[in-house]
Write a structure and sequence with these properties.
Length: about 250
């Protein structure tokens, strides 16, 4: 039985004082959940978030990393740096990074390998654009992105990868995929993993849905057979709203 994993993606929001208040308010509200709770915060909040989340069940992640350990890459942060302060998770290949910062399937793959090399768990985003959805090629796009992202990983690493299926047209738009469509897309991703890595890996790998998840739709989405929780953007900025998403089953 797979655990639900509910991760917040704060994107470029929240100053350290806001991060500290939010996590302080959130902690008692989510302490009894059976789900894994993660907050992926800006680099400048990481240290404060880690300290505030100590002795709680909230895990802290970053939103990006570079694939090299160190060197002349001005402005970048490496997996080794993240690990050194106690970060556990890192989002890789979010569609905003693919779209605005020229990330490709190849850099996504390199970053995932570097995350594992540094003991970080990657949350890898895949998803189709509106044009691709309308052209009826969603499955082809997302299964191919998944295959390329995971290329060269061991079965054990794939089992420990969290995949976030995020249709791009649903991100920050208020439009959510129906639970049936999201579940079907996630099943397609799981089938691709089954084809390449076998049944055991496919059964264990966590695949989340992301794109306008909120407290009013979390129960229906997370109740679907193959949706193992969510990657939540806008609705993860407020403790009360995010806690309702985490407690979707209560
Ligand atoms: P959203 O963002 O929940 O605000 O749509 C999700 C994401 O980009 O991860």
């Amino acid at each position: 039985m797979r655990k639900k994993v509910i991760a917040g993606n704060w994107k470029m929001n929240m100053l350290p004082n806001e991060a500290i208040s939010m996590i302080t308010e959130l902690a008692p509200l989510v302490k009894d959940t059976n789900s894994e709770v993660i907050l992926c915060v800006p680099y400048t909040d990481l240290f404060y978030a880690l300290l505030t989340a100590q002795e709680t069940n909230i895990k802290i992640g970053a939103q990006n990393m570079h694939w090299e350990e160190k060197g002349a890459y001005t402005g970048e942060v490496s997996g080794q740096m993240l690990k050194s302060i106690g970060v556990e998770y890192v989002i890789i290949g979010h569609s905003e990074r693919r779209q605005y910062f020229a990330e490709t399937d190849e850099t996504v793959n390199k970053k995932i390998k570097a995350a594992f090399a540094n003991g970080l768990k990657p949350i890898v985003c895949v998803g189709e654009t509106l044009e691709q959805k309308e052209a009826g090629i969603t499955e082809q796009i997302i299964t191919n992105q998944t295959k390329l992202a995971l290329e060269g990983l061991t079965n054990e690493q794939v089992k420990n990868t969290i995949i976030a299926y995020e249709p791009i047209w649903a991100i920050g738009t208020g439009k959510t995929a129906t639970s049936e469509d999201a579940n079907n897309s996630i099943k397609a991703i799981r089938n691709k993993i089954l084809e390449i890595y076998g049944n055991e890996v496919a059964e264990d790998v966590i695949i989340q849905y992301g794109g306008s998840v909120k407290s009013s739709n979390a129960k229906e989405l997370f109740g679907a057979s193959d949706i193992d929780g969510g990657l939540v953007g806008g609705a993860s900025l407020k403790a009360e709203e995010f806690s309702k998403i985490v407690n979707y089953d209560k």
